[in-house]
Amino acid sequence: MRKKPLVSTVQLVLLAVGSALVFPYTFMPILVSPPANQDVWIVFLMAVFYIIIINAPLLFIMNKFKGISASKAIETIMGKPLGKAVALIYVLFFLVCSTLCMDVMSQFIKTYLKPATPFWAITAFLAVPLAYMSYKGAGTIGRVAPFFVTFLMFTIGFFLVFAIPQMDPKDLQPVLAESTFLQLNLGAFYAAVRFSEILIFFVFSFYLGEKASILKTYFVGISVYAVCFLLILLPTILVLGDEFARHVWSPYFVFAGQVEVFGFITRVQAFFVAALVPVAILKITTYNYMASHVLSNIFGTKTHKVFTIIFVLFSYLVCLIPIMQKTTTFEFLTSDRFFPFMTLPVIFILPVLMLIVYIVRRKKINAALAFKAPGEEAQK
Amino acid sequence: MRKYLSLLLCLSAVILLSGCWNSKEPKELDVIDSVLYDKEPDGTYIVYAEIMNPQGLGGAGILGGAGGNKSSFITTMGTGPSIREAISHQTQKEMIDFGGHNKARFLTERFAQEDITPLLDMITRENLTDEKPFLVVVKTDDSKKVFDCMIGRSSMVGDYIEDLSLHQPKDKATGVFVSTLEFIRDYYTEGKEPVTGLALIEESSDKPSGNIKLSTEGGGTQNYVMKYEGLAAFKNGRLVGMMDADEAESYNFIVNKVQYAFFTVSAVNGDHTAIHITASKAEIKSDLVDGKAVVNITIKVAATISEESGGIDVTKPSDDKILEGVLNSKMEQQILEAVKKAQTEFKSDIFGFGEALHIQHPEKWKTVRGNWNDDYFANAQVNLTVKTDIVLIGEIEKPFKVEGAHP
Fold first, then answer.
1. β-pairing, B292-308 with B381-392?
2. What's the pLDDT tens digit per position in A250-259?
3. A68-72, A312-316, B89-93, B327-331 — which is least confidently predicted?
4. Most Cβ neighbours (<10 Å): which of A207, B184, B227, B353?
5. Which residue does chain B place closest to A125, by CA atoms?
6. Is B398 on the interface with A (CB under 8 A)?
7. Bridge-partner residues for A263, per DSSP?
8. Is the pLDDT of residue B258 over 50?
9. Between residues A268 and A102, the one the model is more confident about
10. Whole-number pLDDT of residue B149
11. What span, in angstroms and rounded, lies between the C-alpha atoms of A222 and A212?
12. Strands B96-98 and B104-108, how do they pair?
């Protein structure tokens, strides 16, 4: 029996935060969500509350089933056949997320960094390290997170400090004058629904030590995410202006291009690339690992490694489909018309259903938990 | 064995991931220093690029230098039905274009008068270009003179503009330096129209540095100088007019872009006092009163006495008050004239009065945003108050001519 790897709370927080920051760091979808104006930072503050509300059911389940793997928790609540079906939905979601993120990153690199490099080569460049990390498992992913994500955070602070001279506070005005209550809430809802990293907590909390508090880890994660997000969002608007920022495919990248250090250190976009690419690979890895790990649990296989390779190949091949290389496809898949509605069922609707089932069957489930808890299966 | 394989894999990354298809060797790059955009009446775009010539850098002055007789840059020209195609059709193009060191984008008058939004689109869309270079409208009878005139101690025109942007504002505020990004921001900002810098190519008898080769057409060297002063005003992406040095200075006062400026006033007949403006802060309050835009501008100025030719005793607070009053009047008159020009000739709110209204009275702004420039801004009542505070009087006390100045 192999011991399950341990992931520390710091590693888990950084893993979730890094994963959640990849999209704002890359293309900042919140800018085009309603009300799509200078009040976007208020929208984000509201979104934090929405995130907590949306994540509450899963958070409750996580806390209740602490030390039990995600798939086992789902099976325990929903019963074996239905539980496996629900877990399979999660596997599909993780796989789609992993594939989409690979596609987004490939498009980003192709558009901004390496226009002459073929798409297949860029995607392969992402696929190889992600396959390796995912193959090695949760422990490796957890250990890598502090290195990659702290550097990403450093770049956020670095860009912020050295962009201060270029910031114009007028870009945030007038405040709340041109947004309706409905628009603000709709924008906050869309932004909140994009936060699918609660599922990282759901899957990886299994690897936390016994003394670790899931709730505390989650709230620290949300706080760090919120601060980092605002420190990405505000300087971008203050330097580019909210209107131009909305027109740009990757506003934060363009913003980073304006940063100069004392007039003689320029081209600090290199930091942006050095920070983003590893964290994006980490995000794709995390979702790939979660897909293969949960599927491995569903089928009761000894290891997730076979699924990892299959899923990486699947994602890679999907990214090579010509339509997946079109900007219009990417725009649709990441837009408010599609992405939030893909995540909502798995981060909110299914957890609510599970919660209802849990409340109805809680005596039976609690009894089963009391029986199983001391001997939870080992997992790598 | 596994360790060695891992090590081999890591080392292979050096070869496999070292640039791939996008690798660019510096020696294979055409490093662009500035670009001039022009447009023929038939719609054909003309793009001139100033490309660094490393073999010519070092100058060809009396002390010789690494450059010898070679020019520090070459210019290439391309034409096409679109700007991007004109760039790719450059003559003498033997290397890969590299726009990362581009310092300035010059626009001819006719190009700017047409519509520069295709250029902005290309700049923000293309991988080759970025938003940092300054935008400058060139006023000249022959646009090619841009690369054929004296540019101080610089070796390239783009570098010249960059140097000016760093140092000219510390002497005077008669020019504006607007990066492409700033232009785009203003283009998108409600209630504010963008401006660009203005470069005037004029004949000059200045002594050339010899850093660049001047045109020798017609037998002798034609000395032209690039004078960087004034501004070019835009509206809906089109050039609508230009302002001279004083007007550009006024613009800089209103938009808070003045670092230093000099005013010479005459408080006593026949004498003059040079006043050095060392700090300035403008506050704009816009409102709609009885359906008419009313703009109140207050500019607070801190100043130092630089030169006194006559009877004003700058050590006396009462005399300073006189000077402050005279300067206030002079500045008010100059600034209001510039505003009037923008209102009547351009009908373009380059000062951002509409932006102030948008921020201060968003509800009222909604009712006027559609025809702000042509109607409300053009007919706005602009009230200006300048409050000068002479803080320092320089390194001597009483002026030379004042009685008692000499022991």
1. parallel
2. 999 999 999 9
3. B89-93
4. B353
5. B17
6. no
7. none
8. yes
9. A102
10. 86
11. 16
12. unpaired
**Coil vs helix vs strand at A343:** helix
- Residue B160 contacts by C-beta under 8 Å, 6 or more apart in sequence? B151, B152, B154, B226
Mutate to test the interface with B, among A113, A178, A244, A248 (most CBs of B within 10 A): A244
At B211, the amino acid letter reads: N
CA distance B331 to B62: 46
Residue with tokens 């032209």: B224
Kindly report the number of other CB atoms within 10 A of residue B266's CB atom: 14
pLDDT, one tens digit per residue, over B4-24 is 877 777 766 655 665 567 777
Query: b vs e for B183-217, b when ≥16 Cβ sit within 10 Å of the residue's Cβ?
Result: bbbbbbbbbbbbbbbbbbbeeeeeebebbbbebee
Question: Exposed/middle/buried for B1, CB within 10 Å: 0-12, 13-18, 19+?
Answer: exposed
Phi-psi region of A241 (alpha: psi -120 to 50; beta: other; left: phi over 0): left
C-alpha dihedral sign at B304, B310, B312, B315: positive
What is the pLDDT, as a whole number, of residue A255?
95
Q: How far is CA A151 from CA A8, A127, A273, B233, in A?
A: 18, 22, 11, 43
Residue with tokens 């909110």: A348
DSSP A118-178: -HHHHHHHHHHHHHHHHHH-HHHHHHHHHHHHHHHHHHHHHHHHHHGGG--GGGG-S-SSS
Encoded amino acid at A345, one letter: P
A313 sits in which H/E element: helix A305-320
**Least confident piece of the model among B159-173, B195-209, B229-243:** B195-209
Whether chain B has a CB inside 8 Å of the CB on A178: the answer is yes
State both tokens at B109.
Answer: 């008058």
- Chain mean pLDDT for chain A: 92
| Residue A103, H or E segment | helix A80-108
Is A117 part of the contact surface with chain B (CB cutoff 8 Å)? yes
Give the pLDDT confidence of B22-31 residue by residue, as tens digits. 777 888 888 9
Q: Average pLDDT for residues B112-121, to the nearest whole number? A: 95
Dist CA A42 CA B31 (whole Å): 43
CA distance B35 to chain A (A): 20
Q: Which residue has the higher pLDDT, B44 or B57?
A: B44
Cβ–Cβ of B362/A177 closer than 8 Å? Answer: yes
- CA angle in degrees (0–180, nearest 5) for A319-A321-A326: 80
| H/E stretch holding A367 | helix A362-372
Supply A109's token pair.
């690199």
A244 closest CB neighbour out of B166, B188, B360: B188
Strand order in the sheet with B261-265: B261-265, B273-289, B292-308, B381-392
CA-based nearest distance A52→chain B, Å:
33
With a CB cutoff of 8 Å and minimum separation 6, the contacts of A43 are A30, A33, A34, A35, A179, A184, A187, A188, A191
- The Cα–Cα gap between A166 and A102 comes to 33
- The DSSP code for A265 is B
Chain centre distance of CA B49:
19
pLDDT tens per residue across span A280-298:
999 999 999 999 999 999 9
What distances in angstroms separate CA A254 from CA A182, A241, B119, B189, one per listed residue? 31, 12, 17, 18
Chain B contact for A5, CB < 8 A? no
